Amino acid sequence: MLDLIRDIEGQPAALIDNAAVLERAYAELPAWIDSGDFVVTGMATSLWAWHSATIVAQSAAARLTLVDTSEYLRYGPVADDASPIVITSRSGESAEIVKVLDRLRPGRGVIGVTATAGSTLAQRSSHILAFRAEEAAFCNTQSFLMTLAVALASAAGVSGRRDLAPVAWVKKTADAVAGIVSQTSGAFEEAAAALSGARVALITSRGHLLGVAQQAALDLQEGMRLAALPVPGGLLRHGPLELIRLADSAMIMLLPNDHMAATMIQAAQDVIANGTPVIIFSASEVPSPAGSVEIRVPDLGIELAPIVFAVALQRLNVALAEALGMSAIEPVLIPKVTRVE
Prior knowledge:
five-stranded parallel beta sheet, 10 strands
């Protein structure tokens, strides 16, 4: 568990240390894709980290297609597509990533986003964005944070968003992350106590935080073997809400300061009225409903919300593991790098 804590504590420094990579993504990716159609692909953590960035790019009419690598490989036009492709993988060696590289059309532009400069992905890329992410524990902490940051910088560059150039946000985001890491209010421990008796947890979010919710669910599945289900807020009442009728259920809500906050708060109030524990991670300006367990997250704007919310959720992982009496997070059925599709 100490390794995980140290990994999380190292994240403010990781953002600063990778500033040059983020600046390169912002400045050079538009030329690498020739400002035309391009594909972004990855698996699990690497894919989800691009969700918010995809919204940023598509809001500016950038022609970006985000696709799961395995689905693109087995059902997509991988052998015929000539558009530039951004392939994201922490290890650069996952089975699906290597297979896609083998199937790409000759001469196709490949931008590799990876933490492993000597990997198969890095060696076969036309251009490499190699970030540094030191992780001793099993959980994806710094690698997820840095992929979120690289994705945002890339999308901002493609979209011409000068307000999202890394120079405008790296330092203030690192400071906000440091504040989350050092927070001693007891909120994480209170949330862990509320969640520790659950066997099923809905993690609900909307918009820019959907990818973060998916990653948080993965962490709880792998680490705590908790049946954590990421549910987009718009689908919450289309079936998943029935699960809160289970006596051992709980809900985690990610609540940024955006135009859907009031709708999400109403959903939280309905769940609380059922007697189900509700843990809300909310931006500092957003009120949380009475009866919820509240964890406040700095409000840096909607595009930077995934980074700060992700770190807060990682803090919850530590607190929950401690509440469950776990000394380490050690999955037994999956390796750190998935070599089998």
